[in-house]
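My main concern about presentation is that the manuscript never shows what a single data entry looks like. The format is easy to grasp once an entry is in front of the reader. For illustration, here is how one protein appears when written out as sequence plus structure tokens:
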Amino acid sequence: MPIIPLSHRISHRISRRIRWVALVASAAGIAIIMPAVSHAQLMAGTGLMRRLMMQRQQAMGKDAPAPPPHTTYAYGPDKEQDLDLFMPAHRQGPVPLVLFVHGGAWSKGSKETATGRWKAGHYTGLGYAFATINYRLVPRVGVQQQAEDVALALRQMIRDAATLGIDPHRIVLMGHSAGAQLVALVGTDESYLASAGLSFADLAGVIPIDGAAYDVPEQMKASGAYMGMRYDAAFSKDPDRQKALSAKLHAAAPNAPRFLLLHVQRPDGIAQAQELARALRAAGTSVEVRSFAGNGLIGHITINQRLGDPDYPATGVVDGWLKQVFGA
């Protein structure tokens, strides 16, 4: 019987536990960016998985009401370039729109699995339209093309606004995790909107939710092995490309007019949100940063899954901000 060195066995166990965390999250219908995980945390993998399973219900929250009916629209020729649009049941005149971009480490996830269960019903209940998009994924395309997809989806909603009953002057981009990075980038680098025939004047605001790649080079320095591979796949090892895809480094004016940055208690997410906020304020852009309870992966999942739940603290914060921005 061959003797396997202890170091190899430990490495194998660490790799297996990382894959199992991702598998359980996927089984829960959650597309994630895995926070940096220490060697000590991984060696406690069995306990980590037990806690993850026990806390899954906490992350998912109570049962959300059934979402309202939706219509699916293509915004480009690719099969992944489509979106679901939910409209409020009772409306008088054109309504504001919240356009959501899902997460999933730029390489996975979809509007069906990673939007969260509360948003559509909650925002249509407030009298807003709500749309959630699919976009092309790495490695088929790069992050630049994903940001272009966000701009194309926005263009489609603006072009069809009169027919759909949407107010084209009251549209907010919202995104979680990798989606937070994408909406922040579109909200600071106007070239993506310009490529779709739009400008920052076509945005009322941007809500990035618990992202951690607003400054890609800095985030890549802090990433562990698991996320390091995914950052390499998304942003490559080219420093110039990493900088070009960093919202913080584009935050000198002009920008989208308003930002609301949300984060839970992840050190990288906190640091990245604070640094982006500083850059936006230095440019004279209106920005609020709000912090919520929740640690690590569970906190990262929870803020997306429960946003829109009236009992979840971030819901009221976002509602108040949207009311100010939309005037309704």
Q: What stands out?
A: Residues 1-43 have pLDDT under 50 and may be disordered.
